[in-house]
Design brief:
Length: 329
């Protein structure tokens, strides 16, 4: 059986295959812009400042909102750096990408996702905020391009529908190519490179699914790298139908993508609804600290720099990205 190529049924920028986009990315070095105290504090690199967003919680999961600069230490490649900029940020503009799994294993959950996501957009979007919506299964589809309108996003959510391979089933032994059943990594890569890379301010991807990836052309490491280069935090919502547990998945890949970018994973349970999780994500996005320091290695050589943010109180937990790419001029 010939497995169809992934297409974006509504264009996301350029109609390119993943392979072509990867080649273009390698050929076109990225321009990093300066981050100053007056700009939105996302991870940016120049000779002056690296800025990192962090959230802090106590052992019970409550946000700690009143910490001072002296409570934080930050390290790059294992060496402590002087904090030169610090702010408690709660109302900075947001750009949110919602990625919804509509593969066969999510068939019975789509309606719940539709209702909860509509309420989320109505609640979270403030003045100057924007959002877009992508569904992914055997293909990735841009259901709503960047907009500040909850009404348009709700209209896009109405377009959520099952996305399975053309033949509906996969017969082992018929092809050496992987089954393109749930292209989660491709969807993350596309959202980061085509929708978010050139946006400014705080940028977030929210993924809803069961953590399964079947048939993506990019690996998880490439999806994470694309998100890091676009300065994107990934929040994952693990939402699974127990009837499909035999097909693998789990929250392992979701944890890896979220952890590396400074987000985290939430799991839908009987005691924790999808609506409640969306509310938690909204609260976290509005309660972050911005920490800036001068990079010890100012060369824009495309290399990866490890970042570690810590607080002096050992009972507190910090969520922040693990590093950044010093992108070439």
């Amino acid at each position: 059986m010939e497995i169809p190529d992934m297409t974006m049924t509504k264009q996301i920028g350029l109609a390119l295959t993943i392979t072509a986009m990867l080649a273009a990315q390698q050929q076109q070095p990225q321009q990093a812009t300066a981050a100053t105290a007056g700009e939105d504090p996302v991870i940016k690199v120049d000779v002056d400042l690296v800025s990192v967003l962090a959230s802090v919680r106590d052992k019970k999961g409550a946000f700690i909102k009143n910490l001072d600069k002296e409570m934080f230490t930050i390290f790059e490649d294992g060496k402590q750096q002087e904090i030169r900029y610090f702010a408690r940020e709660s109302n900075l503009p947001l750009t949110i990408g919602l990625l919804v799994d509509v593969s066969k294993s999510q068939e019975s959950l789509i309606e719940v996702e539709r209702r909860a996501a509509a309420a989320f957009f109505r609640s979270v979007l403030k003045q100057k905020d924007q959002a877009f919506l992508i569904s992914f299964g055997s293909e990735a589809e841009l259901l709503q391009d960047m907009t500040g309108s909850p009404r348009l996003l709700e209209k896009g959510l109405a377009g959520l529908r099952l996305s399975v391979p053309v033949d509906g089933v996969f017969t082992p032994g018929t092809t050496n190519r992987p089954m393109r059943g749930t292209i989660m990594f491709d969807a993350v890569y596309l959202a980061a490179t085509e929708q978010l890379k050139r946006e400014v301010g705080r940028k977030v991807l929210v993924i809803i699914g069961d953590g399964v990836d079947h048939g993506s052309r990019v690996k998880i490491a490439e999806a994470i790298e694309a998100a890091q280069k676009a300065d994107v935090l990934i929040y994952s919502i693990y939402f699974s139908d127990p009837r499909y547990g035999m097909f693998g998945g789990g929250d392992g890949d979701l944890k890896k993508m979220s952890g590396e970018t400074g987000g985290r994973v939430f799991e839908v349970r009987r005691s924790r609804s999808l609506e409640q999780i969306f509310q938690e994500i909204q609260e976290e996005m509005r309660n972050q600290y911005s920490i800036g320091y001068a990079p010890p290695n100012p060369r824009r050589d495309g290399g990866y720099r490890k970042v570690d943010v810590k607080v002096k109180n050992k009972d507190y937990r910090v969520a922040a990205r693990k590093g950044y790419y010093a992108q070439k001029e």
